[in-house]
Write a structure and sequence with these properties.
Helices cover 34% and strands 28% of the residues. The protein is built from eleven helices and 16 strands. The strands form four sheets. Strands 13-12-11-14-15-16 form a six-stranded mixed β-sheet, with helices on both faces. The longest helix has 26 residues.
């Protein structure tokens, strides 16, 4: 500050005679004095060519969670750095304090911590950092933009996790029954016990009975280590926003709950995001945590504004499972022409697999159906009635081909799909 004051004093003394000039001379003198002050101030501002910035990656964060991006500003120059630091995160990263003031003595470094609260899923980036070095009086500044790329991966929030304990409890009750009186596909041998009145005579184990003096029956339990294949539609219909959330994100929530539940139930899970080509894959057959793999695979997914290639779905199923499996199609019931795409493909898959079609229904349809207080609301109610009837017609055709259908509103789709899995497991259809 002493050096700065000396420069300012010399500038004023050198231009003092000019200030004494009358009229325009005075104005010119003021301009010259200010110019001199700015020049001196700019000269005293630390050079940004001797400043380095390094970034510490914030890692992964769930949607609407919080993360911290740390910038380390090092001053390699001879003068104290008084700077404004602006971290250029894209708006959806939700940077809470992207612009901060920092003061770094010569030869030292300081950390700038930027808090992030993302409002969008996916890979969010910050390409550069802008520094503005100011003089002691903060009248002038130097500015420089440094390449300092950073990114944060925003994972799906998995709000439907709250349903997991109750669904697991139902699954354990199913596995813990003393005897399941079903035979054939979808069951496996559990144990032997004495025959009691009411047991199915087909369950009698005659070899064990011959070795003992009492009649012995076999008990069964739902078969484990079955295959569950989840196909998530990422075509143009998944871009529609329903209840202030893209249909794609609702499908992710349902897929996450079903996948974790099936894995806990002892089944093998494979996930494929598909439109015209596979966009993401994950599965419990590979090493690592299934939930971690799924959220990492789903995070960068975006709806593609193209039509779904229905003819490619059977090939995707065959690529992950050549045996009888539970195939879950997370798609829409109203997109395109279902009789040319969804229905024939689901019917084809149902010949070998157990097929479930899960679709999200707009809750606005129910609200529009109830409001009939004027002419326009009556027309809207008629349109909603027609849309619901068309969905029911598609569902009826799918059920006719042996396909199970889960058609529910966004917050109800994940738990209802999980309940469908448990019912199929209890019925021995897996």
């Amino acid at each position: 500050m002493a050096l700065s004051g000396r420069f300012v004093l010399l500038a004023l003394l050198g231009l003092a005679p000019v200030l004494l000039l009358p009229g325009w001379g005075t104005v010119l003198g003021v301009v010259l004095v200010l110019s001199a002050l700015l020049a001196v101030e700019l000269g005293l501002a630390a050079s940004l060519r001797s400043v380095d910035v390094q970034r510490s990656e914030p890692g992964n964060v769930t949607l609407h969670g919080t993360a911290v991006s740390t910038l380390t500003v090092r001053n390699n120059g001879r003068r104290r750095l008084r700077a404004t630091v602006r971290d250029a995160w894209q708006p959806s990263a939700g940077a809470q304090n992207p612009v901060q003031e920092v003061e770094v003595p010569a030869g030292e470094s300081r950390r700038v911590m930027v808090r992030l609260r993302p409002v969008r899923r996916g890979d969010l980036r910050a390409p550069h950092v802008t520094l503005r070095s100011q003089g002691p009086l903060r009248l002038a500044a130097r500015q420089r933009t440094l390449e300092c790329p950073g990114s944060v991966r925003v994972l799906p929030p998995f709000h439907s996790r709250r349903h997991l304990p109750s669904k697991l409890r139902k699954l354990r009750e199913l596995d813990g029954k003393a005897a399941v009186q079903i035979r054939g596909a979808g069951t496996e041998f559990d144990s032997l016990r004495d025959y009691v009145r009411g047991d199915d005579v087909r369950s009698i184990d005659w070899r064990a009975t011959a070795r003992r003096s009492a009649v012995v029956v076999r008990t069964w339990r739902p078969e484990r280590d079955r295959r569950v294949v989840i196909i998530l539609d990422t075509s143009r219909t998944s871009a529609a926003r329903i209840d202030d959330e893209p249909r794609l994100d609702t499908g992710m929530e349902a897929a996450l709950l079903l996948a974790v539940l099936a894995e806990r139930g002892g089944d093998r899970v494979d996930f494929v995001a598909f439109d015209r080509r596979p966009r993401a894959r994950a599965g419990s057959a590979t090493a690592g945590n299934l939930l971690g793999q799924l959220v990492q695979a789903m995070a960068p997914l975006e709806a593609e504004l193209i039509e779904l290639d229905w003819s490619g779905i059977p090939g995707q199923v065959r690529a992950v499972s050549a045996h009888r499996s539970l195939v879950v199609l997370l798609t829409s019931l109203e997109g395109g022409a279902p009789e040319e795409g969804l229905i024939p493909v689901a019917a084809q898959l149902a010949q070998q697999h157990v097929v479930v079609v899960a679709a999200v229904r707009d809750p606005m349809l129910g609200l529009m159906l109830q409001e009939r207080h004027n002419a326009s609301s009556v027309f809207r109610a008629a349109a909603a009635e027609r849309a619901l009837l068309e969905r029911e017609a598609v569902s009826s055709q799918l059920r006719h081909h042996g396909v199970e259908v889960v058609d529910a509103e966004p917050h109800q789709l994940p738990p209802q799909l999980a309940d469908m899995y448990i019912r199929l497991k209890a019925a021995g259809r897996l």
